[in-house]
TrEMBL record:
Gene3D superfamilies: MetI-like. The chain crosses the membrane at residues 12-28, 75-108, 120-143, 155-175, 211-230, 262-284. GO terms for biological process: transmembrane transport. The lineage of its organism: Bacteria, Bacillati, Actinomycetota, Actinomycetes, Micrococcales. The keyword Glycoprotein does not apply. This is NitT/TauT family transport system permease protein.
Amino acid sequence: MAADSTRWRQVAFGAAGVVALAAVWEGYKAVGPEQGVTIAGQAVLPRTTDLGMPHLWDMVTRALEPATSIAGADAVWVAVLQACLVTLGTAGAGLLVGAVIGVLLALLMQRFQVAEWAVLPWLILSQTVPLIALAPLVVSWGGRLHLGPLQWETWMSVAMIASYLAFFPMAVGALRGLKAPEQAHVDLFRTYAVSWWTTLLRLRLPAAVPYLLPALRLASAAAILGSVVAEVSTGYKGGIGRLIIEYAQSGSADPAKAWSPIAGAVLLGLGAAGLVAVLGLFLARYRHNEEHA
């Protein structure tokens, strides 16, 4: 009962946050200067013109209208949904690869202390490489790979970049989780001469669940972000990243339309986090003292 009450309270706070954000948007548009606020030549607050900040109801209305003037064209929201599904597929593939690599690295670092000393600094350093610089290299290297009858495609490069962002939170979260069991419990297993593999399955992995779920939430959000940025950088068409660019190019003539794919990307990230939350419901028995991220 207490858990259900807490869950509904979290949902209520989330909904209240969305309503508050909408109120701030419309409130600033109503009272803010049309040319925005600049200090020392730097823009601090955005412009409140219809081009810079359309009304929320204009965005919703435009999302329900056809995307183009061609007869029979899908509505904007349908095009955004299709693009989100494409991005979700590539991000899901990247998340799967990143999660597997992250957990394997965590197992290696937990098993051998020298591996942690050697690998962990490089994991941290890897996250300082900007995606804008990484994406062209991945596409170039991928085009040179020969996998028998399989041909390296652009979506694989997007998935690889997504996995590059996803593996780091998984590796760090899994390492913390694998080290979470109390020393007394570890000593008890050692006293009974329990093998490392059995200790991993019976003690360390169950204790790691409260750390793995927050890490998976971060990794899923990072995979979505990586996919969107990679779509823009690699030129991969069909995903929400390219749709943001395409709609933004017509922003001066149709400003409300340009915000639909942006909202779609936000909802996609929330949906990915929601899927992890659903997974957490099946692992509730292991989620005592969960680490929140």
